[in-house]
Amino acid sequence: MTAPRDLLFVADRRFVLSDDGPLVADTARPRDFASLAGVVKPVAAPAADARAGPRPALDPDVARLLSALRRGSYLDYASDAAMAVDESIMRTYLAADPPPAAETPWSGPLAWLPHPAHGTGERSGAGGTRAPGIGRLLLSGFGHLRTVSFLGLFDVVLKPVPSKGARHPFDAYVTVEPGAVRAGLAPGTYRYVPSLHALEHLAAEPVEAGIGAGDEAGRAAGRETGVGLVVVAVFDRVHWRYRESAGYRDLYLDLGHLTATLDAVAEDASLRLTPVEPAAVGAPVVASLEREIVAAYRLEDRT
Question: Which region holds residue 277: left if phi is over 0, alpha if psi is between -120 and 50, else beta?
Fold first, then answer.
């Protein structure tokens, strides 16, 4: 067997790649990684802090391992061998548990949103209802484009924004206060249903003071506030496939793609997304998900 020459990351496991194919590296000793990808330079120990005393020396094997990990790459799905490795891992996961649903199940009454494909062309600043802009914003960030099969094992959903492993770990909630007459929606709390491009009405009670606390000033300036957009993380969608702490990093990389898309679409639709603290949302249904909230906005007219 030839020496290993690279390190691969697949789901939650690491593999050493050699001429004989991917080899499981779980039991490899740290010094076994020293031959990866050419000469691996040890990581220098950080300088000692005089106030905290000298730092312990970094073990040479650990230093080489850390350097090798930095040189690692993700699995190349253009390779048949790589696909076989990932398929084997996914079969193991499927044998234990099915993947979580790609969409949160809905059961409440639905409020249908206008689809941008209908070509309404209406902007929220034109004095009409905001519904077309809200629908376009939700479709661009969370919409269901199509369902495809992953390795013939299970289905994944493709959306307008990229997501590692097509996990798309976010749900969108919309809150509407009683004074938001141009929202085109009855007051209450809604969850976006991507496959239907509709909002599930979760609570009919008025949203408590929070996002709309400064509405009077907004209306006096000719803007209408009182509409909130809340992004909630569904961690199980990521952790079923990526079973390590790096899954949190990937979730927030996905969030960066999502928030940049929302900002761009909102600007084009003459809307402004103003970030607020999750506690400012005020809706009882959304407040119960406080630990899962990763972004919260007040939706206003752009002037």
Answer: beta
- Orientation of helix 246-268 relative to helix 131-142, angle to 10°: 150
Least confident segment among 33-37, 60-64, 283-287, 295-299:
33-37
Using alpha carbons, select from 302, 298, 297, 303 the residue that is nearest to residue 259.
297
Residue linked to tokens 């400012």: 280
Query: Would you state the structure tokens that stand for residue 51, as one six-digit string?
Result: 């106030």
Order of strands, sheet of 110-112, starting from the edge strand that comes earlier in the sequence: 110-112, 198-203, 188-193, 170-176, 227-233, 293-301, 271-275
Domain ranges of the chain: 6-96, 110-301
Angle at 255 between CA 120 and CA 232, to 5 degrees: 80
- Mean pLDDT for 8-35 is 48
Q: How many CA atoms lie within 13 A of 87 on its CB side?
A: 12
Q: Which amino acid is at 269?
A: A
Partners of 22 in beta bridges:
17
Phi then psi for residue 59, to 5 deg, are -55, 130
pLDDT digits (tens, 9 = 90+) for 138-155: 999 999 999 999 989 999
Token representation of residue 44: 């220098």
The CATH architecture of the domain made up of 110-301 is: 3-Layer(aba) Sandwich (3.40)
Distance of CA 298 to the CA centre of its chain: 20
